[in-house]
Amino acid sequence: MHILIIGAGLGGLTLAQTLRKQGISYEVFERDEDENGRFQGWAIALHTIVEEFLSALPPDMPDLRESTNHLAPLDLRHQFAYYYGGREGCFGLEDSPDQPFIRAERSRLRKWLLTNIPVQWSKSLTDIEQDDEGVTVRFKDGSSARGDIVVGADGVHSPTRQHLLKRPSSDLLHVVPLMAIVGELDLTGDAFKRQLELGHCAYNLINPELGFIGFVGVHYVFPDGQGGRLYWMFMQPDTADIEITDATHWLQTSSAQEKLDHVRKTAAGLPPSLREVFELTPVEGVRKEPHIWRDLELESLPTGRVALLGDAAHAMTPSRGEGAFQAFIDAMKLSRMLAELRTEDKFKDINAVKAGVAEYHDEMLQRGTAAVRRSRSSYQDAKKRSETGEHFTSGMKRLAIEPVVLAATG
Ligand SMILES: Cc1cc2nc3c(=O)[nH]c(=O)nc-3n(C[C@H](O)[C@H](O)[C@H](O)COP(=O)(O)OP(=O)(O)OC[C@H]3O[C@@H](n4cnc5c(N)ncnc54)[C@H](O)[C@@H]3O)c2cc1C
Within this chain, do residues 162 and 202 fall inside the same structural domain, yes or no? Predict the structure, then answer.
């Protein structure tokens, strides 16, 4: 049995690793020229599935924490804080032996997932043809490959999905009415320490009473441990009559300075420590292009030799940090289904393939779509929780905020 994986993102590579562990033959095709071809994003959290995730991958993987730690070279416990409007103290998640919580720098995580995976770069999928004997994928450079099952792990604008549903992404993706302004800044010394003390990895500002929710995170720490790069996302429900994609929308027409002024004005009611990051951000650090969140709900998918995974099937806003998390679960479940198809050569029977893919898609779409809806309603959810004090996820506890010492280890 030979599996063709389209896309070497977090989901596609996780699937490749799970297949490698089980000795199932696979190839990975990626449109980018190499692993540095595109900005991979900032940092993501791995929690609740860490043990299951690690046990699904081969034993020759380097240590996950060490390889991906976005706080290295500082030796700080990973924690993620929530500041609820007007309340004292903060709650959040913290790494512990019973509840592992790992925040990974994304390009390091991607590099880690590439361990011993021979990706075929510069392979941009253009077409898929399937029949009762197998499936052929074709690429822009004129080459092709043949296998038994194709997995589209090719992200939010998935060409595999387009092939399956015969509908362009523009028909299927929904623009979420959430205005997001994004900023980045470098800090050193005491200013950097103060940010780490608010939550070592990141903190959320839950302030619907001021009309926004915000997220502030460390992207990475500088090699000398004396500073680091931070990023933030400032989000408000969009009440304009026009979509954010419209060229006349305020987010499209406003300058970086106007966006920064708007953020600072809206956050003016926060205590000084919580608004400092916005005050310190230089105008060049504010992204002028608007961040447009699109999500996707699919009711069903055709069954055959093509399966979808991750954002290709259930793109969602990043407000709950669930996109990659769901893609990891998809990859683990799909690899179990594929292992089952390999037993007694069931994959040679097209009806067994169809049944396996259908069962995988049913569970994946149900779970993924629930996450899409949760993420879409995150602002309303934050508003409710801010009023009731109810926590966002299980395992949240009061965090002890302690002084941070900027001393690099090793
Ligand atoms: C700002 C931001 C913050 C986020 N934060 C979090 C977080 O904290 N936690 C979390 O769990 N999730 C987070 N997410 C979501 C997460 O990034 C995605 O859900 C996750 O990357 C999906 O993985 P994927 O493998 O499905 O798709 P992707 O990672 O997008 O990978 C798709 C791959 O397919 C390739 N590809 C596309 N077209 C083709 C083609 N024609 N041929 C070949 N290859 C192709 C792409 O180049 C890409 O490498 C965030 C997203 C954003 C935008």
Answer: no
